[in-house]
Amino acid sequence: EARASEGKSAFDFPEVTAGVDADHHVAEGYDADVLFRWGDKLFADAPEFDPLKQSEAAQQRQFGYNNDFVGFIPLDGADDHGLLVVNHEYTNEHLMFPGIVTVKEGKVEVAPATEDRVNIEMAAHGGTIVEIRKVDGKWQPVLDGRLNRRITSKTEMTLSGPAAGHDRLKTGADATGTRVLGTVNNCAGGVTPWGTYIMAEENIHGYFKGTLPEGHAETANYKRMGVPGGSYDWADFHDRFDLAKEPNEPNRFGWVVEVDVMDPNAMPKKRTALGRFKHEGAESIVAPDGRVVFYLGDDERFDYVYKFVTAGKYNPDDRAANMDLLDEGTLYVARFDEDGSMQWLPLVHGKGPLTTDNGFAGQADVLIETRRAADLLGATPMDRPEDIQPNGTNGRVYVMLTNNTKRKEPNAANPRVDNAFGHIVEIHENDGDFTAEAGKWEILLKCGDPSVAEVGATFSTETSVNGWFGMPDNCAVDADGRLWVSTDGNSPSDTGRTDGLWAVDTEGAARGTSKLFYRVPVGAEMCGPCPSPDMTTFFVAVQHPGDGGEDWEGFGRPSYYEDLSTRWPDFRDDMPVRPAVVAITRKGGGKIA
Ligand code: FEO
Ligand code: CA
Ligand code: CA
Ligand code: CA
Description:
Elements: E1 25-26, E2 30-37, H1 56-59, E3 67-74, E4 81-88, H2 93-96, E5 101-104, E6 107-110, H3 115-124, E7 126-135, E8 138-141, E9 149-151, E10 156-160, E11 179-181, E12 186-191, E13 197-201, H4 219-225, E14 256-259, E15 269-271, E16 283-286, E17 291-297, E18 305-313, E19 329-336, E20 341-346, H5 363-368, H6 370-377, E21 385-391, E22 396-401, E23 423-429, E24 438-446, E25 472-477, E26 483-487, E27 500-504, E28 514-519, E29 525-531, E30 537-543, E31 580-586
The protein binds MU-OXO-diiron and calcium ion (3 copies).
One calcium ion binds near residues 473, 488 and 525.
């Protein structure tokens, strides 16, 4: 095989032409088959999806909304049989419920929320675990698979780790500070080396309403997290989302959630040791000494890059021995220095400024207010850290920084003011050891259109007009160590482009060359890129197709415009647009080249 070290791209597929239309498009020679759509049955007894007869009970047995992270967990080591795990990040009411949006005198109005509608939204959030099998080269759902499961914003979970049981996590419904209902805004995620499913809680602020009592101790903490965001009306029907009624509930969100997929009754666990912020994802790798390292982005303008190193070591021969590895370890935040070196600063109570004098009575406070602790340590404010992916084949780590149009002061790792298109930082951990407390970094790519000089993009000259992208969001490293990047927002109306999945060379003379492999229908963003371990399938998640996307300045808030030029994926007048997971395979089989 020709490899990048010879100056040639590591990717052979014929590039897709950039553009935007009602359908999705994949490279010639490949098939893109819709595998799960919002509303699809996960159990034989689930009702067929009917957009006019939605109910909470039905949604709890059907595939949820706005698929984001996708992971594949093989069953019995098989390549053609496993569990697909999928996050359902948020809901777009204006796209979900036919007839609730009206335009009066040029003003868009959304019908007031009802309790039924809110409960459907809550059931459409969370995650799906579903068995799939490849038959004659095509993936099929296994309805009624023993491990099939929906996790929603009402699923009972435990809080574990150093902050569990702390007074700041106690509520009227939970005097122990260890039990919480549900998870929200699960954006990216991860699959651990021991085969559990990680759901990261990102924009949690939007679910809360109401005001804290005057002078309440959590005022500054919630302000730093944007709580209450008031994007959803859940608080009108569920008191726990109303700050005036349950002032501690927001402290029970913003964590990393771990789910044991092999036990459909296992209670998901919110792992407080990994900190509380707007968690984008949690991709992991086993270090040479057996400890496991999780890379964590906090997706907000001027927030930080983190990693968590377990105290214990991964045991590949005893799954049960790994099940609480995420309760003990060290959380670090990154400082990227101007000379290309970097430091991982430990967030440990009593170290440096993380003291009682500064309002941290113990490690629980450091974790509940991770952002403030990281501020005090002098971490480097970044341009919205999204997915972060370690690469075991070259010891490097790729950090997606999606954009930051509010940046006025550049720093070396975020060198562009008004960074509209984002960039990718590559970390080289010292000695290739992912547990290292110091390393080096460089910029792999400054994104955007390289033909516009002012943009300052750095794609290689081999990159075609179809190959450049902006707004890197999710990414994946395949079994051959190749980088794939998916985008969110690479579709300003004047560019005639939409989001998609790009293959990016990182090695040799081809470094910085990018090629378009797949693009989404109008209004959608591209999430979840998940290569199967044998590289014969790429699972991708098409999120919010048909969304007008006019108003994302306060992100986390759904906009209320619908692009009626697409009815993807059903193309039926009686069916709304539906987010869906797509399985991409090579025609006639074989590896994705
Ligand atoms: Fe939900 Fe940071 O993207
Ligand atoms: Ca994301
Ligand atoms: Ca990823
Ligand atoms: Ca996104």
